[in-house]
Amino acid sequence: MAQLRQEADPGEAGLDAKALDRLDQHVAHYVDEGRLPGFLLAVARGGRVAHLTTHGRRDVAADLPVEADTLWRIYSMTKPVTTVAALILVEEGRLSLDDPVARHLPAFADPQVYESGSGTDVRTRPAGRPLLIRHLLTHTAGLTFAFYRTHPVDALYRAAGLDSAVLPGSDLARTVEAYARLPLQFEPGTQWNYSVATNVLGRVIEVVSGQPLDAFFAERVFGPLGMTDAGFCVSDEQAPRLSELYGETAGGGIEPIAGLPLRGRPRFLSGSGGMVASAYDVHRFMELLRRRGELDGVRLLASETVELMTRNHLPGGADLRAFGSRPAHDEPGNDGVGFGLGVSVVIDPERTQAPSGLGTYGWSGVATTTFWVDPSRDLTVQFMTQVRPKSSLRLFPDLRRLVHEAVTD
Fold first, then answer.
1. Model confidence over 124-183: pLDDT tens digits?
2. Residues of the chain with pLDDT under 70
3. Which residues contact 263 (CB under 8 A, 6 or more apart)?
4. Residue 205 and residue 201: Cα distance in Å, rounded?
5. pLDDT at 392
6. Spatial separation of the C-alpha atoms in residues 401 and 324, rounded to whole Å
7. Among residues 391, 340, 389, which one has the least CA distance to residue 362?
């Protein structure tokens, strides 16, 4: 078992120790107020961890502290991992960004697009263009989530039993077939809507590789990168290190809630949000991206592929705000933020809600986890806790602001 450790003095890494103390105190206040159980925060420059803080509890009732080797449900931070897995297949020539999804998943051969109506009176028309792999990677596919409750197609997902994005009792293959039976919200490639698209991408990976998603990840991503705790379930040996999952109460406190079924291999392997990982695992993954596809002599992707992944792909070069986006969690604000392949990308730092370097990319998870890579500052940051809030804690913009205030060069 590998564990994240501090490797450099903050001053040597161009970070202000006093500013980092202010950062820690600010986030610790959330714990003191009972709004977070505990957290892990790591800041690295040039690949060396120069600030590592653990505070509070991974399990409040059991009085177990957050430690460097604590395991976290990273939910949507799984999506960039699925993206890297798909791009490995693209580089091998087994998959193309311009492949119709139907080439690999025939259920998508005749996509229908929503026109009008609701419930049983929904009217659709055949899509004017095919649904492509690149649309899955950029969330421009026209797919959605049931829990949005803002569009008639969202309601169709609920009616189909997809409230939690998985068909109850089903595996990835059957669930993705259920998605395919529902209409798209819009023509593929024309708008952005954060959705179940990465689950579809996960199923494409299974079909193209001939392996279950967890096996492909283990062999082609986790193993080569030394992500020793990453996976879709936890072993008996790992289980004591897993953080309890909490939800926000009506009064602003927290209480334990049910999370991903991580004991034993899950039937549904979610490329969209099924992973558990340690801070060390996340650091290794960020390092792969920061180093443009290579880590410790192992190259998973060409540097040009990572550049493609971390470039804005939204229609017309727009930012997320242009599409009235509805992400499942703050990312922090959508002004000046575009979307690449599986990650958000800062395209106009002056318009973002928190200080961000041009080209900064990353993503977050619904349990208030986040990571980002800032190439202009050679900076990587991760924040781990386990709270599914009813509304945004407004933590991420403050986190970005305070981290960037600590950068001295």
1. 999 999 999 999 999 999 999 999 999 999 999 999 999 999 999 999 999 999 999 999
2. 325-333, 391-393
3. 233, 234, 239
4. 6
5. 60
6. 24
7. 340
Closest CA to 178 of 200, 201, 194, 195: 200
Place of tokens 């080569």: 224
**DSSP strand pairing (387-388 vs 112-116):** unpaired
Q: Which of 250, 225, 246, 367 is nearest to 300 (CA)?
A: 225
Residue type, 397: P
CB-side neighbour CA atoms (13 Å) of 71: 23
Q: Are strands 254-256 and 64-65 parallel, antiparallel or unpaired?
A: unpaired
Instruction: Give Cβ neighbours of residue 213 (< 8 Å, ≥ 6 apart).
Output: 82, 85, 172, 202, 203, 205, 206, 232, 269, 271
Query: In angstroms, how far is the first alpha carbon of the chain from the final one?
Result: 34
Q: Would you state the pLDDT for residue 277?
A: 98
Label residue 147 exposed, middle or buried (CB < 10 Å: 0-12, 13-18, 19+).
middle
Which pLDDT does position 326 carry in this prediction?
A: 55
| Separation of alpha carbons 148 and 156, rounded Å | 11
Helix (H, G, I), strand (E, B) or coil at 267: coil
The residue assigned the tokens 């006093």 is: 18
- Residue 320 contacts residue 144 (beta carbons within 8 Å): no
